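User: Could you check the structure of this?
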Amino acid sequence: MRAAVVLAAAAAWYLGCEAAAALAFPGYSYSYNYISDLGIPGTGTSGGRVIDSPLAWVMNAGFIGHGVLLVLGALLLARAARASSWRVPFLLLALVHGTGIVLVGVFPAQLDTSGSAMMGWHVIGAIMAIVGGNLAVIASGAGPLRGLVPGPVRRISIGLGFLGLACLAMLVASQQAGGGIILDEGAWERGAVYTVQAWELLVAATIAVTAILHRTGGLHRR
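Assistant: Sure, the predicted structure tokens are below.
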């Protein structure tokens, strides 16, 4: 149950910080703008996109907080799970995600006029967060979630991870093409990122409901 609380908190913290920063950003578009645009301090342009994020520190706190909470939630989840050969890969991948997204918050994206080398660390962190996060979601469904959630939830988890990686591939293809393919680049990026929060909420809700049903006698262990 503690894993459920922490995972739900991770998703709520991230999405809440993003929503607050987006509301303060004039004309911000969830489909056109990148998530990292919200974390850029100062005003100007980044990749040709207009940047004006008064609550950049809130978005960066969202990145860092999510990384810490997801790793903690993954540790609690693995501890509660049955022994599985996938448990160690799951934890390592969750740590890759957590480290990456903390780097994203510590080294925000930069304005076009900035000569800072921090952008390199930001990009490395973003790759680690997206790839590591979605692979961790896949690994969770392959092993650690067994015995904690029903089979369909495990299969949905695996599907979410592959969906996130597919969206990442479309994002890269859109960047190479110089414009969004079918959807804008910001939409593809969110498709690659939100699968992790969707997994957190799905697993948290399933574990919580299962625990409540067990306590009320509405569900019997097999």
